Amino acid sequence: MPGIRIDKKYCKGCELCVQACPMQIISMSKEINVKGFFIAKVHEPTKCIGCRICAIICPDIAIEVVTHGTQYIPFEY
Amino acid sequence: MSSNPNTIFKRPESLSDNITHYCPGCTHGVIHRLVAESLDELGLRERAVGVAPVGCSVLIYNYFNCDFMEAAHGRAPALATGFKRTRPDMIVFTYQGDGDLASIGMGEIVHAANRGEKFTTIFVNNAIYGMTGGQKAPTTMPLQKTSTSPAGRDVTKAGFPIRMAELLATLKTPSFIARGAVHTPMHIVQTKKLIKKAFRLQNENKCFSLVEVLSTCPTNWGIDPNGSLQWVTDNMQPYYPLGVYKDPEKKNGEES
Amino acid sequence: MAKKLMKGNEALGEAAIAAGALNYFAYPITPQSEVAEYLCWRLPQVGGNFVQAESEVAVGNMLFGAAATGKRIFTTSSSPGISLMQEAISYMAGAHLPVVLINIMRGGPGLGGILPAQSDYFQAVKGGGHGDYRLVVLAPASVQEAVDLMIESFDIAERYLTPVMIIGDGMIGQMMESVEFPKKYRQQNDPSKSDWALTGAKGRSARVVKSLFLDGKKLEDNCLKLEAKYVEIRKNEVKYELYKVSNKNKVLITAYGTMARICQTAIDELEEEKISVGLMRPISLYPFPEKEMFKEANKPNILAILDIEMSTGQMVEDVERVTKSIKPIEFFGHTGGIVPTPEEVKDKVYEMLKKFKKDKKKS
After folding, report:
1. Alpha-carbon gap: B37 to the closest alpha carbon of chain A (Å)
2. Residue C184: count of CB within 10 angstroms of its CB
3. Which has fewest Cβ within 10 Å: B40, B122, C13, C350?
4. Considering the entire predicted model, what is its pTM?
5. What ipTM does this complex have?
């Protein structure tokens, strides 16, 4: 079951991942990091398909994608 | 079900752990990552030397785990020429913005490409001077408002934006010249292939390689990050067609 | 190697090879294009690189990039070209990069002329680029000395990690003289032995060669690091020559480079007329021979100092500063490419001595 980890210290709240996620399961949380940015959060983790698009569009390499067992890779990256 | 999770996307080894100074949503960060992933996947990090420009990405050396040197404004291709000629066994790349490469550094990039210097240039085109606060650049779009063209770029006085990929592709010396973009995930995946190919060609000692990458500047464009991606689609992409303009591995460098 | 008759420009090129400097970046400019014409076929013979750049601005920056490898790097140019390299020289000084630049000076300002001159003294010695930095500046007076200084300049550049400039004038470049090179040529540097050069972050953290320090304190620290070098340079690298200096001298001539050789001829002829004149020839223009020049000027037998240059008077300002004008200082010179003759030097000495006799009568 795939999932992502958003590293609070890198996120600048730019919301690119929010728009790019095909499952539309990322949104801006109320949590603020040390620089005062609202950080992104996955509000429905079970729907994550591990496509890596959020990590690919993130300009700050704040997102790591992990998966368990076999994982369908939609495109080569 | 194997219990241990495996990571299918993480920070490339060639990138340091530092938080970048770039504005939220600025796609410099994406392009940095594509360069770093290419260095990792081709195993070049330990032999690589980057040349930093003057502009937003002047601090690029804080974000890479490979040796760097910092050029005077526009002169990175000359530094790269000097280094590569003296140490042809090493991998040399310049990372430059449009003010750095297409304005003050036009002479350097044209002649380096024409001599066929075997280094790689990553040319980030965001149609504006970012670091100095949003002035008009050679790549600024017609009617685009900037701090030095508040009424919009007047092509009768400032001419039309310069298409560097096409311009360099007219040179006869073999080289790899392409233009990509990073305003959608699909374009990012395609641009990574172009950047990786550029470094592969250098690693195979083939030719000069340059990849122009359309990029965003939310702060100085005055558009939110996601709106900026859209602005690239609506305004820059039509004027700056993406694709491969010169490819030593293809006779007339048609779209690959 | 036996003595060879060689043109200054070509001798400079061969000297670089003798010093193990096999990477040369240049742009054609009279009166020193022969260096490139010589090295373009000579360097490949010894496994070296010659790149003709698109401009001297590009040359200066190619030097920066090449110097970052840790190998020995040099260029030659002439006045207008050296002006275009000033930004790059400032960057190389700020980034602590060793490099050797040769300026075969021609008349200026502007496009000026192509005849020999010494009117770039200020640019070389007082720093032509921006920021707190200095250049070691050496001035040869013969082709042999140009060769010797060229070879030594690479050692100085690497000892202090600094740019070094040799300034000759058109005559040094164009003159043919017999010259001798060291029997054994030096091997190229091995970059892997360097602790600062960019050799690839393998088994070590990444290195950065740069001159940007946005934090004020860090930039001041960098400038103080440079200043500490210059203190050492002023202590260890002063070079000068005295010619026929004795306590019989009435006048002390100060001159450098080709001009000094012309003064030596004048001094020899004056000696036959029982007029004793000595010459002090700075070889290092920076570090300037300050204490030594004051000592010579301060001798009781010296009535006056005569500074002679192929310019409208630039080193004379340092002569005044250094001797604190304890003796009257006169300047004589031509510029624009006109080379003063020994006769003109002698006439100037006669005129000065006549004035002293008149003053003595009056007092």
Report:
1. 10
2. 8
3. C350
4. 0.96
5. 0.95
